[in-house]
Amino acid sequence: MKFVIVTILFVTISNTTGVYDQNSTVKEIDVLRQIINQETLIRLALVKDVRSLVDEVSSMNRTMTSTETMTSTLQHTVETMKRQLNILTQENKKIARNYQKSILEFDQKLTSLSENVTSIHQYLKNMYWQDLRRDVDCEGLYNSGHRQSGVFRINPYGNESQINVYCDMKMNGGGWTAIQKRKRGAVEFNRTWSEYKEGFGDPQDSYWIGNDVIHHLTKGRNSTLYVSITLPNDTVLYEMYGQFSISDEEDKYRLFLGEWVDGTLGDGMLHTGKEYADLSGMYFSTPDRDNDNGNIDCAVKEQGGWWFNNCHQAYLNGPWSESWTNPWVPAGLYHYTDVKETLMMIHPH
């Protein structure tokens, strides 16, 4: 456009002046060339700028297209996540309902189980107390089916205080409870009042069951007393009394003996023919508790506990030494060397 205008202007000037010299014309042409060159440069710059703008627009279009694609992808992802979240929410609700149902069922089962445990506990408790009442002595154990002699636990007090005792399940129908048992002096019997009260020794070998236990086993019951002495040659001599019991500690464990039955030892406790030697009605004495009828302290002299009168013709708790005299006079047993074992057992009837 600018070139045309310059040409027209040049022609017009030429027509007006009519004459141009050659130098002027050359100069003018040079000017025009410069103008044209500048115009060309401007056009080239404009084309470059336009191309650059076109590139930028194309780039922006591509960017927008990419952005739109990303936006579309993100929207699709969001929609997918929404659907998945909705599915998870529904599943969680279902799980929560099932969990609540399971908790309720578990709670019901737990309640039922607790009731069953309570019932079983009560049943076992009843059975336990029945066993305790039944196994008050060896007779109860025998009635429970025990047939082998040995050490068992019994409950003479009717509560949870069980003790170990020796039970003879063979002799005379079985169910005999040993209250005294000695073998060759294995256990010292020169003991205090408290020790004779509580009991001492080992039921399997040698022991005294305890005066409290003897009282609880015999109070309010008819019991038979069996006494035996094994000689050094293993001969067993015995004596049996149809009534035997002792009182409580407050009454000093007084001995009540009656109804001699039979035996091979001879009566050395009930009707001895010696007033000083009959033992029924006598209090129990120990070296630290003198309750006998004599002027001397029989328990100190005889070094052990017994139902001394003044003093005795039968005494099974003496020291296994020369100090033990007259274990059982009616049988001719005057020294500890005459005795290998002793045994005192009771049985309710």
What are the salient characteristics of this protein?
alpha+beta, Gamma Fibrinogen, Chain A, domain 1, 2 domains, 9-stranded antiparallel β-sheet, two-stranded antiparallel ribbon, disordered N terminus
Question: How would you describe what is shown here?
Answer:
By secondary structure, the chain is α+β, with helices and mostly antiparallel strands. The chain folds into two domains: 2-127; 138-348, Gamma Fibrinogen, Chain A, domain 1 (Alpha-Beta Complex), CATH 3.90.215.10. Helices cover 44% and strands 19% of the residues. The strands form two sheets. Strands 1, 2, 3, 4, 5, 6, 7, 8 and 11 form a nine-stranded antiparallel sheet that branches. The protein is rod-shaped and about 190 Å long. Mean pLDDT is 86; it is low at 1-20 and 126-130.
Radius of gyration based on Cα positions = 62 Å
Beta content comes to 15-25%
Helix content: 40-55%
Strand segment tally: 11
Annotation field: number of helices = 6
What's the CATH first level of the largest domain? Alpha Beta
N- to C-terminal distance: 152 Å
What is the N-to-C succession of helices and strands? Answer: HHHEEEHEEHEEEHEEE
CATH homologous superfamily assignment of the largest domain: Gamma Fibrinogen, chain A, domain 1
Low-confidence blocks of residues: 1-20, 126-130
What structural class is derived from the secondary structure elements? alpha+beta
**Which architecture of the largest domain does the CATH hierarchy give at level 2?**
Alpha-Beta Complex
Largest sheet: 9 strands, antiparallel
What is the residue-mean pLDDT, rounded to a whole number?
86
Q: Indicate how many domains the architecture comprises.
A: 2
The CATH topology name of the largest domain reads: Gamma Fibrinogen, Chain A, domain 1
What best-fitting shape do the alpha-carbon axes yield?
rod-shaped
